[in-house]
């Protein structure tokens, strides 16, 4: 059986060691695995090479499309597990794309790893596979707000949001572009009983200057609402590059 992964360069799966740049584990050494394919299409997505292949007309602000043969690679679960184990850090972050689309294969891969702290970054629309869920220590759920360009009926599934909110392993991370996004987050928090101590807000942006400008008012908004704030450390350290 195989996993479908994104690439750092043609034929090279995007499996790498770095510092976690976002959320509750920011700054921690981690191994990252970036899977390909997504069921949503955010207009500002910074990993559009995982889903916006030639022929995909879903909107994106850059209007760029990517050659699937260059930007997607298949790898056996055994080979992926071996590469992860060889990199060293004991924290694994599985991201995408939308990784839970490949839940069964991920369960088989994680089952072959030595003991690791396993995090999954997800848009929150897909339920965890029953074989994968017991192997996961932390879910980083990033529901997509209206400014992402996704229809709410696809991106904000009420039963899924309520399920994540009731799951103590879940941390929510909302990507924020403007102050008008804050009211939408407040509504979602109220409607789905999302605990403030597990709710992060993060500025949208792929350049340090943009992140700093948005952080100035977003940090104050978080402070006043009992939310947590997260920056994008990897952007400041490495820029908007693959494999970081």
From TrEMBL:
[4Fe-4S] cluster binds at residues 38, 42, 45. One of its GO terms (biological process) is tRNA queuosine(34) biosynthetic process. Binds 1 [4Fe-4S] cluster. The cluster is coordinated with 3 cysteines and an exchangeable S-adenosyl-L-methionine. Binds 1 S-adenosyl-L-methionine per subunit. It holds the Pfam family Radical_SAM. Substrate binds at residues 19-21, 34, 95. It catalyses: 6-carboxy-5,6,7,8-tetrahydropterin + H(+) = 7-carboxy-7-carbaguanine + NH4(+). This is 7-carboxy-7-deazaguanine synthase. InterPro entries: 7-CO-7-deazaguanine_synth-like, Aldolase_TIM, rSAM, rSAM_sf. The gene is queE. Gene3D superfamilies: Aldolase class I. Belongs to the radical SAM superfamily. 7-carboxy-7-deazaguanine synthase family. Its EC number is 4.3.99.3. Its cofactor is [4Fe-4S] cluster; S-adenosyl-L-methionine; Mg(2+). Pathway: Purine metabolism; 7-cyano-7-deazaguanine biosynthesis. Keywords: 4Fe-4S, Iron, Iron-sulfur, Lyase, Magnesium, Metal-binding, Queuosine biosynthesis, S-adenosyl-L-methionine. The keyword Metal-binding applies. CDD domains: Radical_SAM. Catalyzes the complex heterocyclic radical-mediated conversion of 6-carboxy-5,6,7,8-tetrahydropterin (CPH4) to 7-carboxy-7-deazaguanine (CDG), a step common to the biosynthetic pathways of all 7-deazapurine-containing compounds. It is an enzyme of class 4 (lyase). S-adenosyl-L-methionine binds at residues 44-46, 97, 142-144. Homodimer. Mg(2+) binds at residue 47. SUPFAM superfamilies: Radical SAM enzymes. One of its GO terms (molecular function) is 4 iron, 4 sulfur cluster binding. Residues 25-240 form the Radical SAM core domain.
């Amino acid at each position: 059986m195989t996993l479908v992964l994104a690439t750092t360069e043609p034929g090279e799966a995007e499996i790498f060691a770095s510092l976690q740049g976002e959320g509750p584990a920011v700054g921690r050494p981690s191994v990252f695995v970036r899977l390909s394919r997504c069921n949503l299409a955010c207009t500002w997505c910074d990993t559009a090479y995982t889903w916006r292949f030639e022929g995909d007309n879903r909107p994106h602000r850059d209007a760029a499309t990517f050659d699937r043969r260059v930007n997607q690679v298949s790898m056996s679960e055994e080979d992926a597990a071996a590469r992860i184990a060889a990199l060293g850090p004991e924290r694994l972050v599985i991201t995408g794309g939308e990784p839970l689309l490949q839940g069964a294969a991920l369960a088989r891969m994680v089952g072959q790893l030595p003991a690791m702290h396993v995090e999954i970054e997800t848009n929150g629309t897909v339920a965890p596979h029953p074989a994968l869920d017991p192997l996961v220590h932390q879910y980083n759920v990033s529901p997509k707000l209206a400014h992402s360009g996704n229809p709410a009926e696809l991106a904000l599934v009420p039963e899924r949001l309520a399920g994540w909110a009731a799951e103590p392993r879940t941390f929510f991370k909302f990507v924020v572009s403007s102050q008008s996004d804050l009211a939408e987050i407040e509504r979602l928090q109220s409607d789905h009983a999302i605990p403030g101590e597990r709710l992060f807000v993060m500025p949208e942006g792929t350049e340090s200057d943009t992140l700093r400008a948005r952080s100035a008012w977003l940090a104050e908004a978080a402070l006043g609402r009992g939310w947590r704030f997260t920056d994008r450390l990897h952007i400041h350290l490495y820029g908007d590059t693959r494999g970081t």
